[in-house]
Recover the amino acids of this structure.
């Protein structure tokens, strides 16, 4: 046990019998000697860790929990040992914070990124660790969670704000539009569509290549100019356009090869394909003009509704410019270490063992480590044979590790995917979650279901923190913490895909019709249709990006495209586009879907309102096709609304009695205030240091003429 | 029997590709060379095994790379020959082809397709990875992640940094000079920016 005494003698400070830990603790109450986050301290020095409410300490004046305090970890359903075991490393609002340097110092791009974050807000570095045996190596850079939103790219924010102003002005103008104004707009749209068609009619392979090359040359020049100008907005735009122009160059090169002469007799030259889409673009523009002329009222209403939706999207873009979670830059980092898409597992040995050697349930948190750690805390009591892994975002599962971990550890096992409660109503989240579900099943996992915090009357439930501050039961951590929920209460969503058997489309299966499925392609075609069904769900229609479809089908991307063509040729699916996909590649948005169909798909929640009035694609990507499964017998069925505890395999231990605070009784005892002159031991480290249980008082360090140094402990409020 | 010939083809394709290995600059940060090699083998194998989807369609880009090559290993040629035979039979069964087919010519073309895999595989990977990145951005721009800050309308921003757009350092094929059409076209498209 360490004792120490500080004596002021003749104005000299004498440090007697203090070892390194005590000395460090005296001067740095909120960081341990390695700079790790002080276990029960709040932000900053001085040991200010908030009020005690409901027996739990750490509430700020606004009623919110101060990050890192008992209040905070309980609100998120975390156990202290899980929190410390990761660990969550605190950094202060300081570009040069040593924790940032220590974590990212070897990676200049990430270092620059996180210095920017730290200059705006304190926060946490959430350490991550790879799944044992992963081909990318277990070493990973941490994810950063600033306490407040930060702006990483002021130029992006500036551009988004400018765009928002334009969309608001456009909407305001449309409110004052007369029928004549709308007709004028539509005539201009028709003129553009006709120009697009004329372009393709006159195009030659040489002109196509030249135009793509010109776009590339122009983009390169603009980029070079932007670099020398120092204008951050221009540089950002120029970089985006240069990237797109590079990609487009290759595509157009391919298109040009068969532009005029098909190599096969009876084949279709590329020009015909483009003229077809160009013609459809003109037809659509003509119909829109006709609608404006003959039925101006509804036409104007549609335009005004679309303008309102454009404002919503623009507002989201402005909010987009401020972010909360940031991941290391992939650029310049060695294989695997810097990428956001890595799978993480908390290094707790039991969790790792349950995954690598067990056969229990596996929870897959799709929204980052805090959620995963909340589940980890809960499953120790409620589902002790289970384990939990995570990735930072629901979009980030499409990478080689997903297939690897499934084949290595998830064969035949039950997997629970964990999106947020609001994700269940979001088409894009569901698309991604169902894509992962399909991919896991195709790769050999057992039953795979989604589970999210339950809604109340179809909406996210409003709850209150201990302080009375309003909160939402949105994430699984909110549910398990402030929401006082259990894993078993999570709301289940299971998509059951019918067994897809297309053998009746082969000759051996009895098909004598004109279109048959080649027997050698049967398996791949069935997998692709099965993936479309899984992602489209009960509606039977979904917008599915190519990469998502390929990953969910477990086939290569080119093979997936071939399978889609086969399905379409056999009348099993319909494939639609809002915009001509090839024109998009040339930087032009040519609408080929009718307004009525667009509105129908928007009503069904299949797509959001596309930006119909803007010709250039900008930073958005609109090429993903919309698939409709024609025969309802291939539609998936969805079961929802039941709790996770309804699973037949659900058997919590007899010792489990429902929700309990994630703080241990000792930690709760430790939150009580010390009497004047008394300090309370609140941490395991402090308990070891003083040789007393957590919650015990220890005397204040004896000193003659105590000096209060800046940042030093005071008023018996020190955490030990 | 059919499964065996396809398995043999995959094995021979893997052997052939491993001779050259994977070029460093095409390995993205969330990949290793082994992962990319597995992807390359998968793509090459798929294209050959699924020849019915493209070989006879001259509008398909892949046909540009299907031509004979010299000095291919005999085991590879035999493996391709067996698959070609099976696939042509499946095509006839599905009425996808009629008349005589010079199976030996098809075999030689596809062996060349395998041997010259680097002529096309990297370009395909480039475009697929770019496209995938942009698709992820499209989805991400629509999403909102969990938030401790406010309400469900808050969007938390892209996880992808623009700097992480893949293959910044790869040299690309360039085409040529500006044309009057392009200038005209660009002026039309820029009106609404």
């Amino acid at each position: 046990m360490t004792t120490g005494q500080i004596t002021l003698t003749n104005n000299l400070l004498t440090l007697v019998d203090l070892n390194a830990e005590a000395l460090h603790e005296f001067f740095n109450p909120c960081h341990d000697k390695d700079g790790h986050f002080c276990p029960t301290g709040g932000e900053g020095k001085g040991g200010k860790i908030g009020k005690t409410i409901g027996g739990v300490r750490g509430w700020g004046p606004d009623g919110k929990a101060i990050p890192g305090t008992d209040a905070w970890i309980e609100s998120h359903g975390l156990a202290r040992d899980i929190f410390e075991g990761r660990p969550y490393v605190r950094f202060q609002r300081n570009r040069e914070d040593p924790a940032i340097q220590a974590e990212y110092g070897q990676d200049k791009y990430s270092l620059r990124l996180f210095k920017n974050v730290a200059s705006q807000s304190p926060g946490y570095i959430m350490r991550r660790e790879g799944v044992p045996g992963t081909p990318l190596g277990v070493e990973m850079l941490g994810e950063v969670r600033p306490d407040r939103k930060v702006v990483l790219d002021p130029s992006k924010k500036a551009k988004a704000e400018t765009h928002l102003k334009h969309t608001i002005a456009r909407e305001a103008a449309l409110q004052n539009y007369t029928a004549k104004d709308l007709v004028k707009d539509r005539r201009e749209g028709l003129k553009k569509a006709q120009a697009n068609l004329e372009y393709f009619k006159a195009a030659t392979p040489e002109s196509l290549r030249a135009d793509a090359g010109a776009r590339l040359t122009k983009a390169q020049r603009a980029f070079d100019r932007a670099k020398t100008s120092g204008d951050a907005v221009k540089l950002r735009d120029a970089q985006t356009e240069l990237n797109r122009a590079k990609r487009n160059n290759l595509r157009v090169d391919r298109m040009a090869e068969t532009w005029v002469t098909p190599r096969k007799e009876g084949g279709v030259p590329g020009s015909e394909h483009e003229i077809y889409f160009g013609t459809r673009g003109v037809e659509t523009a003509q119909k829109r003009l006709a609608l404006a002329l003959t039925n101006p009222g509804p036409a104007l209403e549609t335009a005004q509704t679309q303008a309102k939706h454009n404002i919503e999207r623009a507002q989201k873009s402005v909010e987009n410019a401020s972010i909360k979670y940031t991941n290391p830059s992939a650029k310049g980092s060695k294989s695997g270490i810097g990428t956001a898409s890595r799978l993480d597992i908390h290094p707790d040995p039991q969790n790792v063992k349950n995954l690598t050697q067990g056969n229990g349930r596996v929870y897959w948190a799709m929204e980052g480590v805090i959620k995963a750690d909340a589940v980890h805390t809960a499953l120790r009591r409620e589902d002790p044979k289970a384990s939990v892994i995570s990735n930072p975002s629901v979009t980030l599962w499409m990478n080689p590790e997903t297939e690897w971990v499934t084949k290595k550890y998830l064969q035949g096992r039950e997997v629970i995917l964990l999106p947020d409660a609001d994700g269940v109503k979001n088409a894009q989240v569901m698309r991604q979650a169902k894509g992962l579900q399909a991919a896991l099943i195709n790769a050999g996992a057992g039953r795979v279901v989604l589970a999210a915090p339950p809604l109340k009357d179809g909406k996210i439930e409003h709850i209150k923190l201990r302080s009375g501050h309003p909160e939402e039961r949105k994430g699984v951590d909110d549910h398990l913490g402030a929401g006082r929920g259990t894993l078993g209460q999570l709301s289940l969503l299971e998509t059951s895909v019918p067994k897809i058997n297309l053998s009746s489309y082969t000759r051996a299966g009895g098909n004598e019709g004109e279109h048959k499925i080649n027997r050698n392609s049967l398996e791949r075609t069935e997998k692709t249709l099965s993936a479309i069904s899984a992602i489209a769900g009960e509606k039977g229609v979904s917008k599915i990006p190519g990469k998502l479809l390929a990953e969910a089908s477990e086939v290569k991307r080119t093979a997936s495209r071939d399978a889609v063509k086969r399905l379409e040729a056999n009348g099993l699916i319909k494939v639609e586009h809002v915009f001509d996909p090839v024109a998009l590649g040339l930087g032009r948005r040519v609408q080929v879907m009718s307004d009525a169909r667009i509105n129908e798909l928007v009503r069904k929640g299949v797509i959001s309102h596309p930006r119909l009035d803007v010709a250039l694609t900008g930073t958005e990507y609109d090429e993903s096709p919309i698939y409709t499964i024609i025969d309802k017998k291939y539609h998936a069925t969805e079961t929802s609304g039941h709790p996770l505890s309804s699973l037949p395999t659900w058997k919590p231990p007899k010792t489990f009695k429902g929700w309990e605070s994630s703080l241990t009784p000792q930690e709760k005892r430790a939150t009580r205030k010390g009497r004047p002159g008394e300090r309370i031991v609140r941490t395991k480290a402090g308990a070891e240091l003083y040789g007393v249980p957590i919650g015990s008082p220890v005397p204040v360090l004896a000193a003659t003429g105590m000096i209060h140094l800046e940042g030093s402990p005071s008023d018996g409020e020190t955490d030990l | 029997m059919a499964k065996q010939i396809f398995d043999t083809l995959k094995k021979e394709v893997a052997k052939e590709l491993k001779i050259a290995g994977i070029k460093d600059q095409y390995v993205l940060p969330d990949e290793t060379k082994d992962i990319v090699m597995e992807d390359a083998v998968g793509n090459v194998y798929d294209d050959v095994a699924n020849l019915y989807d493209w070989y006879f369609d001259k509008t398909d880009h892949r046909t540009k790379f299907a031509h004979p090559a010299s000095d291919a290993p005999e085991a590879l040629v035999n493996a391709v020959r067996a698959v070609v035979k099976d696939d042509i039979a499946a095509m006839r069964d599905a009425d996808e082809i009629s008349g005589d087919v010079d199976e030996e010519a098809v075999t030689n073309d596809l062996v060349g397709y395998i041997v010259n895999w680097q002529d096309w595989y990297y370009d395909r990977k480039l475009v697929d990875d770019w496209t995938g990145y942009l698709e992820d951005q499209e989805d991400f721009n629509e999403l909102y992640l969990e938030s401790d800050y406010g309400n469900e309308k808050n969007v938390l921003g892209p996880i992808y940094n623009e700097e992480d757009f893949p293959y910044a350092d790869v040299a690309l094929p360039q085409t040529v000079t500006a044309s009057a059409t392009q200038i005209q076209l660009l002026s039309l498209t820029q009106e609404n920016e």
User: Anything to note?
Assistant: The longest strand of chain A covers residues 637-643. The two ends of chain A are 14 Å apart (CA to CA). Chain A touches chain B through 132 residues (CB under 8 Å).
